[in-house]
Batch of 4 targets.
Target 1
Amino acid sequence: MKELKTEAITENLHTVLEFIDRQLELIGCPMKPQMQIEIAAEEIFVNIAHYAYAPGTGEATIRVELYRDPSGVEITFIDRGVPYDPLAKPAPDVTLSAKERQIGGLGIFMVKKSMDKVRYEYLDGCNVLTIKKGW
Amino acid sequence: MTIESKKDAGKLTLTITGRLDTVAAPKLEETLKESYDGVTELVFDLAKLEYISSAGLRVLLSAQKTMNKQGSMKVINVGEEIMEIFEITGFTDILNIG
């Protein structure tokens, strides 16, 4: 298991994604799941950066656990911000036209759609969001 | 991400290279805001787009909404991976993909 602790600000997004990418490369993650994992990680980290500690900032911890046979990854995002379950948000209606579509709500929807498992827990004063993806 | 902009009368073509993520999206939004004036045909060339997150999708949706009022918008040269993201999010029905 590898862990990264970083200030939850959007300026650190690339640091977080590079950290995850380096782990994925170790087990030869194919391009498609890699992009899906990156997108999911971006949505979750940016959510923490925007909302968890607003209007201040705070720390986020990202843990990456790799699996072999079958190959996969489990990534956990932890923050000590306000309790917030992003999975409780209703999914956007993706059948609406551009005019009717609202800007927003897409991020977590993409996470749910592309990951095998997404789990939220509030543990010991922490938001813990775990995503799992196999290939 | 880099944006290459080409204007030919009312037609504006933006070629986006690299990653359209949370960090890059505001730059594209800015470019669009500065360029909308007098544009009746907006074309996004995504041949060199490697990655798009919801922040990037939001910019495309907002561009589509603007262009619905003043002309038309088209997205061309969409790669396989990006197309899959458009499909999951229902953007294949929103955008005019050529």
Note: The longest strand of chain A covers residues 59-67.
Target 2
Amino acid sequence: MAFKQITSPHAHAAQNTAQVMRLVLWATVPGLAALTIQFGWGSLINVVLAVVTAVICEAAIIKLRKRPVAFYLRDYSAVVTAVLLGLALPPLAPWWVVVVGSMFSIVIAKQLYGGLGYNPFNPAMVGYVVLLISFPIQMTTWISPLSLLPDGVSHPGIIESVNIVFAGYSPADGVTGATPLDSFKHSSGLVVDQIYQNNPLFSQAMFAGVGWEWVNLGFLAGGIVLLATRIFTWHGPLAMLGAIALMSVIFWDGGSSESPGSALMHLFSGASMMGAFFILTDPVSSAVSNRGRLIYGALIGVLVYIIRAWGNYPDAVAFAVLLANFAAPFIDNYTLPRTYGHTDRRRATEKEEDA
Amino acid sequence: MIKTWVTPGGVHPPENKHQSMTLPIGDLPIPERLLVPLSQHIGAPAVACVKVGEKVLKGQKIADATGPVSVPMHAPTSGSISAIEDRPIAHSSGMLAPCIEITSDGKDTWIDHQGIADFEHSSPQMLIKIIADAGIAGMGGAGFPSAIKLNPGHQRPIDTLIINATECEPYITADDSAIRERAAEIIEGIGILSHILGNPNNILLGIEDNKPEAIAALEPHVADTGISVVSFPTKYPSGGEKQLIYILTGNELASGSLPADAGIVCINIGTTYAIKRAVVNGEPLISRVTTMTGNACGINRNYETLIGTPVSHMLAHSNFNEAACSRLVMGGPMMGFSLTSADVPVVKTTNCILAPSYSEIPDDEPAQPCIRCGMCAEACPASLLPQQLFWYSQAQDHDRLEAHNLFDCIECGACSYVCPSNIPLVQHYRHSKGEILKARDEKVKSDHARERFEFHQQRMEQAERDKEAKRAARREAAEKAKANSATSTGAGSAADIIAAAQARATAKQVNPEQQRAKFERSIAGAEMRVTMAIEKLAEAASNQTDEQTNILNAAVESAKQKLEQAQVRLADHLEKHKELDSEQVK
Amino acid sequence: MIESIAQQPMLAALIALVGLGIIFGALLGYAAEKFKVEGDPIVEQIDELLPQTQCGQCGFPGCKPYAESIASGDAINKCPPGGQSTINAIASLLDVPAPELDAEHGEEADLKTVAFIREDECIGCTKCIQACPVDAILGAAKLMHTVIADECTGCDLCVEPCPVDCIDMLPIEHGLKQWHWPAPLKTADLIASDRVHQGDEGRAA
């Protein structure tokens, strides 16, 4: 026994950061599975490619910063970032798109800001937005969901997928197609009912959009697991989904040709669920207090809806999250919790408390 | 069922209380040497009132309280005082502090003592004095002198007496076992407190629901006493004073205020037992129940431990396996502090000695970066944002730390407990609190220094101005005199001139005498200095270093020179005046 | 008339710009009057941050003169007793980047010190009393002097003038009362030191 000066508490709960991160990774499995079933092997290849790139970049930068490499790699944070980026990218995107995005996420958005815990912006979303702006064609080419493939055409097999990704083969005709949010946006002049009847993306769907509703359900399931294990609190995700739902109800416009779409479509299309449970819950770049996270989540929800409805992009989670990242310190300033023994909450920059 | 309130946050660490509850409270053999620190409480340290070598009896006072916030110390056993010196004490710093060491004579002979059988007929003041003289300080952890808590003169009357039997820290069972075995005496102690406080409306005994045996032991004794035993769900840290008050009354203590400001007195249950012993049996506080636990000890149980018993003595009688022990903790695993020596003594606030094995409490992992996951904020019982406090602690941003209410942190350790990144948050907060207090202290000092500097400057300027004014006045006087003489030469009579000349002559005649006296005085002074310097040199020559001898030599030389100069000046002066005198004679 | 101006783009631009200038000038002037802040003059604020040792290591006779000099543009890194924390505080007050301490003026001391006069060696020359900027030395001519430790700022100024070198600068003693927890080790240090530990002593588990 060594007589060491150790501060209390001496007991510690068993959970550590690596376990938290691993749990988050497990929670992405339903979403990844849904993506793979609905859109083929592309997402899985994305994820693997992004993870390999991210881990190599992370190790290299930590080495450059003269920190213990193994110690920092063991926290799995680079893997989580890479998996989230991989899930967000369109399946069967060229390999260099994934590599560039993953590198940018880790090197620029994370490590250059000081590494884990210091990045002001969500690294996966920074990578995604860089790709979206730099390579719009590759980033907007989506695969058609399984049930909408033309007769006789199926998703490319794993070998073919690898060839498409790495060797630049082009997928068979009819394999690519628009996303529900995209087609809805470009169906101007039609009232909502017409779109729902004419477009197989909606007419064959259960409640939102073919394929995408399953993907969103998958992420919702993973998110609920994380909520149940108290990896994060309900405030952020619920506020975001609530804000999207509220905005869609307010601007539903009776389903006219100007209507931006129903609440169900917005909640279960695009990256809504993934954003709510896996992106905005990134604690590093979000607001810190529960009240702050309510505002932060609601802000993202509102921004997502605004960009989807009236902006140039069909989906907007990445932009909304990055904009809200900017606002997080500002939100923090005004949302300190009321401490025991104080009558009012204080401001983070307050010098002296009012009596 | 009495209504209770639920505090925010909190954690549920494994309780580990059963290990030490298998055996009843035991006794340890009297250690050969006991070490009584003079400061075991909050407030001024006591001052020893015995001398080394003196014989003392058990219960004899060996140190007096100093000042209003202080308690006396008593000999835990009979024997002789073998040392009064600085020794390692139970403190996180591992520093030394004054202690009285008693070598036991093994007889354990009590000093004459007598209690009061019917305290109900004694005045509260007298009972408070007995409690103060018995050296009783809060035995739950902080060690605040109990007599002060009970003292009347609070701004508002006390309407609620809270007895803290929560014992929310894992492993510790000192209060639990004391309640099970001594419920009647504890209730009597509460009766004394109630009497002192003028029978407050509410007497609430707060206890967590993980101690059903203790609750059952209390029930038969509380009937008709007005005491309500309130049990509430187990959660750490319900036993914090602020937390317990909220749980039992729904009131929050305003930040920085005392329970008495809200009409509440909160006393640890172990203290009530000590108060009963002091009042009814006349025994000062010289022993307490201390839990000896942890897997590195073969025997886990509670001991009635004499204050001053070295921890090593307790370990030696508990089958301690040093190789298996990861660290020694005084107190519980959440708020206790690690010991840097096994020789430190048990004091009035020591409720537990924890000797965990490596598997129970492993060595700390290196801290990983904070990911601001917010688990700490969920666990914080004071609704702080520990992650932000950590962030600003690293930056030593004192303004932000205070804006985030750092000083409302009770250092319960719930945040560090849940932190997935193993960050020693509490140490960061303790460090920052210390730094802020130091900075405040320095601010006071520097403001004071500024004031003194400004005063100094003012004084210097004033002196300069005065000098200047004097000079100006003299100049003016001289000019006036000149002008006067000019006018008088112009218009004055010869008689005036003669008178003036005579006056000048008399003035001059006075001056030489005075001057001579002055020179003589200075010669006398110089002579004295020379003799003194020589004496000093002689004295020093034997035992000083060369350097100092040189300095003194130089001093002698310069004194001699000054003497010579003075003599020369006097000689000159005399010479001059001879001439003058002779001139005048002519 | 408006039409004729509108047809002359040069004239229109000129008038518009002048007009805007007048309007904004008036607005600014009004705002300056209306929202005038009677704050602490900057000198006072800087002086607040300086350690008030009055040691003169900055080259000014006291903290206030240095504060005045900083306010008129002098470097903020000339105060060794205040050290880096004072530089940082002034930098954040003035909203400028915080430079390192200028080594030319001395180094930041690890320990705070106070002057102590070895009293049996004091010859009573009063030179130290005259040097002390905060009147912290008691004594009279030919009588022994002593330092009031609580008032001493540790400025060193009395050491130089003493003809018999009987003044020592002693570190202020730290007891239990002053002790507080040190900051935890940085992880990088911790890992490195763990390696050393395991190397030379191992663990008896």
Note: Residues 16-177 of chain A form one domain.
Target 3
Amino acid sequence: MNRIEVEDLNVYFDDAHILKDINIKIPKNTVTALIGPSGCGKSTFIRTLNRMNDVIPTFRRDGVVYLDGEDIYDPKIDVVDLRKKIGMVFQKPNPFPKSIFDNVAYGLRVHGITDKDTVQERVEESLKSAALWDEVKDKLDKSAMGLSGGQQQRLCIARTIAIKPEVILMDEPCSALDPISTTKIEDLIHKLKNDFTIIIVTHNMQQATRVSKHTSFFLHGEIVESNLTERLFLEPEDKRTEDYITGRFG
Amino acid sequence: MSFRIISPKNAQKIMKSIFWASGILTIIILIVIIGYIILKGMPVISLEFLLADPIDSGRAGGIAPMIVSSIYVTLIAGIVAAPLGVGAAVYLSEYAGESRLVKLIRFGAETLAAIPSIVFGLFGLSFFVIFLGMGWSLLSGGLVLALMALPTIFQVAEVSIESVPRSYREGSLALGANKWETVYRVVLPAAIPGITTGVILGMARAISEAAAILFVVGSALAMPASIFDPGRPLPLHLFVMATEGISLDNAYGTAAVLVIMLLVITVLTNTFVERYRKKMMGR
């Protein structure tokens, strides 16, 4: 079953045609990696999925994005509801300058969950799921800004899963992290894919092979090739994919 | 072949010394002025000077009504100008985008900041005192000072709100918060240190002002019973005492009290801001 289906999506900023005729199906509870060189439109694409591009005044699009069969750009769709279903983790860890606890509780409070015990429970549960609980359980009231980069990124993941989304978008979540922190995040992705549909943008092809089941290769705003990750890397069908994964450009 | 009068190494040394000297000179000027006023003022400052009413136009007695007047007008200025200034800053940096209205508001604030304080006073006289019928009162004075503090508060608040990283806003929006929740729960708390500094700078400007309130507070010597009474804040008292040759010693005493009040406010605010920032940033 597919969680997300994108049909003939085109995205423009002013007159620049950023994404061209994107068609992709994202199956439920799997990891899909989006690879491609800088400026190929991967980030713009995932930001279209939770409507983060809406805040950019020059953004225009046509085509349809379905989440569980519902068009997310339908005027009846509430963006707040949508973003509750589709969470996002950013390239640079961006915890709020608040306590560790308040960071994780943030989304809950925004969505009207204020009962103390419930919040407490969900915060603990989310930090455990994000493999961060043991490192922070004694300093939940300390500022999240005091954590290391890798811990901050896991905190951002905890903050996202606290509101129980169906999909988690990750925009190069390890690009600002050291190798050990990267391994921890990748382990976490393996664990999370049982409960969430994950779409990860990555620069790092090894990472794509390590974490994902499906991979799509983006180039100049188009999807050149989508396939099972193994197939895409072992027997690319398109010459451009082959050139990219063998390091001839990018 | 290149020809230099001064070698790069020496140029580096010379420039460093010039900057060092500028820094030191700035501190020395500050210390000399504050030190001089406190030294000249200290001899007349006593418990009586702080707690008694003035006698014989201020030749003797104390300055209690002036201290109270100063506190009243400054608080009125802060209470009125802080929400207005911060509100305008939030509107401009979070909601307005880059429209003509925005440019106009920003230009307005800059111009407002450049208007001479005596002109504010004249406006206050005709608008608050006469047109709105508030009379010569601490309220009229506080409102004029609010107008003067407004551009400072607005400008500093706008800069500190805009310096909140975009990534905080995106993080909040991505969690399903709407714009207002993002502003209220993330942006404003992160900007609090800067906003507080702006509010205090604005209020410091208000508490130090004599010219702006000259025509509007009434210059009464008696202890004001409420904000509807006339009063005489410290800078105005100091001005009258010095220009009318009533008592230069007591003028210095008044100046010293004013300077000490300002120092206390500044130090307390800085301590609060530093503590808040440390807690927020986990250091």
Note: Chain B has ten helices and two strands.
Target 4
Amino acid sequence: MRRIISMLMENEPGALSRVVGLFSQRGYNIETLNVAPTNDPTLSRLTLTTAGDDLRIEQLTKQLNKLVDVVKLADLTEGAHVERDLMLIKVRATGAAREEIKRTTDVFRGQIVDVGPSIYTIQLTGPSDKLDAFVAAMPDGDVLEVVRSGVAGISRGEKVLSL
Amino acid sequence: MVELLSGGEMIARALEDEGVEYIFGYPGGAVLHIYDALFKDCKVPHVLVRHEQAATHAADGYTRATGKPGVVLVTSGPGATNAITGIATAYMDSTPMVVLSGQVQSHLIGEDAFQETDMIGISRPIVKHSFMVRRTEDLPGIIKKAFHIAVSGRPGPVVIDIPKDLTRPDEKFEYEYPQSVKMRSYSPAQRGHTGQVKKAARLLLAAKRPIIYSGGGVILGESSELLTRLARHLNFPVTNTLMGLGAFPGTDPQFLGMLGMHGFYEANMAMHYSDCILAVGARFDDRVTNTVEKFCPGAKIIHIDVDPASISKIVMADIPIVGPVQSVLTELIAQVEAIQEKDADLPDQSALGKWWQQIDEWRGAHGLFHGRRYGDSDAIMPQQVIESLFRATNGDAYVTSDVGQHQMFAAQYYPFDKPRRWINSGGLGTMGFGLPAAMGAKLAFPDANVACVTGEGSIQMNIQELSTCTQYNLGVKIINLRNNYLGMVKQWQDMQYEGRYAMSTYEDSLPDFVKLAESYGHVGMQVTAMADLDAAMDEAFAMKDKLVFLDIFIDPKEHVYPMHVAPNGSMKDMWLSKNERT
């Protein structure tokens, strides 16, 4: 099962490598990874997606919690949450496909953020599966480059991951 | 008035302020400022080893014997990488240790400078935590935190990497050693959940075939007395892991011996048929469980551990209790007594009586081998060497070991009545651990008997430490079980590879260990006949202040038994000798 694990960690050099290292050391996979400072400059928020059964995820979160640099951790998939992934995608846009790509972009509520004579660069945000669907909707062979931020997530309602 | 100290002086002073008794280390370019500060003004004696791996093992041995954190000081690059095996050894066995490693100057980091290595990166998977020092004035706080992290919760090694320029003698900063540590991201459990402890007490008292399975955590958590009190109060059988030996008195009739791959028959059988296992400070290691799916099918499991990640990692616990063993056991004993006040018939004495009867039958049927196995051979059996060692030291020595058959024989045949007497690399299985660990124990307890049980394979992995023993006059006794093979490798090759001894012999390349010991100024003795064994052992231990290298020629055919049947065996599936199995 896919999980979104989000944590606050000390904004210290080396903290990220401890988290990432733990995954390879203990045989877990990271599917997406997103990390950036928060409103508190001493803390970074790291969100990652991984897959595993309950036991495996429990063990993983315990191991992550043991890392001294990890201050607080939550499995967002345990409750209602909002998740967003941001994608920049560069596609070949020539001839009839050019108009079709623009229409598809509108349907997905994406924005064309760069235009060239034969390309569009489109920005799209949403849950990961929406982004996957957009990539699949592009004409075969016309996708030139895909950049995704990885999932960022937050719980719904009053629940807050903070100190 | 606040003192002004250089980085090097701060380190020397902080180690004093921390109450450190010994620094184990080896100098080199990146730590020369620190060594100069130690030389000029530091009350903590430094022990110079001959290889950085030995520094970590010696610190580890010191720690396991005393319970106090070990301190290691090594230089950058090869000094740091040489220390890695010892750090990994400490990590696997949860030894508290603070390793100070030198680093190249800050401005050279990342430039492939001379003797540069990314120590923080290399050590990351085998440390509890690590610090890269960036400002000299941070040193006292970092050192305080390092000790705090190393000793608290589930203990472990902590590395502090220190660039050389931060220790310069000409740059001085205000020094004040912090009294306490506050870390928002680190707060190990202080006590167990009362509701869980109550449930555990009820389950224990309802058990008909209970067993206490305790590990190294009981020793690390200074809880041997509590465990012993609980076990005796309930009259429950006790088994210990390799790391837990000595937590419960080894000569006590309630003790079933070690469990696991080379565990006692009665211990493994009792585990398998138990209906309630109280696991304390143990982690269901693969050398204990055999096939996990077949592990103790009828047992409810209570698991006490300070490390939440150890619980339900391998085997699901029915009653998990996260907390320090000491406080949890204290509360558990109180809860057990409280229930018994209301119901004096608990636990069920007739069921317990039958259980003990069954255990005694197992014990009688296939207890450990004592005496001679090969009637026509007059070779010395390795088990007899350990028994002789036990006799010569009144069962009260600090015994370190290396890794292999000799380690298992020592664990089986030297019953430890006290914690911290048995010092071995259980988790990582590090050959070369024994001699430096013995040095650490001997430094901690100069008047005690310290024996290193080893083999000719293992001892050669840190043989250079014979020189350290000369320098510091460390009268440890080296009990070399010599069979001219890498014995455990050979045993597996006998059992699983039809006796093809791939790289498990040295042919005729072994040194004359007697002469070797003598060349370092020690005493060497060779024992080749059973008739001479006891006398040689007594003679060696009579030489209180001398290191004696006892090179004892044992029967090379001997295997370690019992041995779990693998693959797909359960706890009860064991080889009992070369041709008998359960």
Note: Chain A has a mean pLDDT of 95.
